[in-house]
Amino acid sequence: MRQIKIGILGLGVVGSGTVRILQENAEAISRRVGAELVVKKIAVRNLAKDRDVAVDPALLTDNPFEVIDDPEIEILAELVGGVDPCHGFLLRAIQSGKNIVTANKELMAKSGHDLLDAAQLAQKDFFLEGSVAGGIPIIAAMKESLAGNNIKEVMGIVNGTTNYILTRMTEEGADFAPTLADAQRLGYAEADPTSDVDGHDAAYKLAILSSLAFNSTVNEEKVPRQGIRHIQARDIAVARDLGYKIKLIASAQCHPDGSMQARVHPALLPNKHPLASVNDVFNAVLVRGDAVGDVMFYGRGAGSLPTGSAVVGDLIACARNIVSNATGRVGCTCYLSRPMLPSEQAQSKFYVRLHALDKPKVLASIANVYGDFDVSIESVVQRALPGDEAEIVWVTHKSREHHLLGALDVISRLPAVSKVHNWIRVEE
Fold this sequence. Notes:
Number of domains: 3
CATH superfamily of the largest domain: Dihydrodipicolinate Reductase, domain 2
Protein name: Homoserine dehydrogenase
Cofactor: a metal cation
Order of helices and strands: EHHEEHEHEHEHEHHHHHEEEEHEHEEEHE
Largest sheet: 10 strands, mixed
Enzyme class: oxidoreductase
CATH topology of the largest domain: Dihydrodipicolinate Reductase, domain 2
Number of strands: 16
Strand content: 25-35%
Family: Belongs to the homoserine dehydrogenase family.
InterPro entries: ACT-like_dom_sf, ACT_dom, Asp/hSer_DH_NAD-bd, HDH, HDH_cat, HDH_CS, NAD(P)-bd_dom_sf
Shape: elongated
Radius of gyration: 24 Å
């Protein structure tokens, strides 16, 4: 049986899972491909480090160019992460005749277009399933199974750390800070959680998904993002009373005029919404096509074996193309240049929670400000507080964000208003 030799950069969480799957399922994989996949070399930072998977030490090197420049290696799996030096590694690997598999979301969100173009020019494959939503096969589905659709919307929960935190806050009534600390203790959140809780990670993934969905390159810098640090236990409790759950949503739409918008933000989801039931570290992506309608993909969005599963799936697809002499058939599918709708033009319903004096005409004075900024009110709920204040919760009709923020700036300075505690988007 023919051998196809693989080189791997990185033997961390994802790399270890990838190697374990290749080892444990080697016979089945060979039968499915029609060739034996052989790991020839693995580049690591520290040769002395204990590994989570048994690997022949002779396969390891701390020189990545021993892998990148090896002429026998036909597929390079980049499982390191980050933009530099990985961007240069992959360009050099493509130029040396290698097919590429990566799980690097940041690299693909920031510099994916030129890498895909380079691979297409070289007639080489470039796979990236592991870069979004772990073991969920969303990229292959969008590039292949859903290719006959015009995708109208992509919406998902694509960060397991924030979903775990919000699930715990919902179930236990806890605030953000202690829940984050507990997630860090359990290993569900990094020591520096910035990328997760401030929405960077989700923005990387959304940039990739929306580029695929709408056939137009979306750079992550163009994706407005808002994290979950400001979400309070009281907001979650009020949302529950109103029939909603709060989730960190990555959302992108393509409008009839050809423009698109994308953003990452916390949102109140109705309990009946398919994404509202996605809890803990699980991810889900909802895709809306003109032919298929709504389809949702659900599963584990991170971890050694789930993401390793995506990487191995790409290795198998690439190996099949090598066997069939059919690499480089489909490169970058971003053949359009769609305008990005400015965030200030985007419309949404909004939830607003504030404290104000519980006196006549206060509610009316606040409502008048909303009206001055063209913000229409759908509902208002008032709850008496100890003393002379009340908690007032507003849900608006669809409004422009800059109109709402202008109104809240004025409202926060009204003598009767002690504090505007929060505002959050509401999805339908």
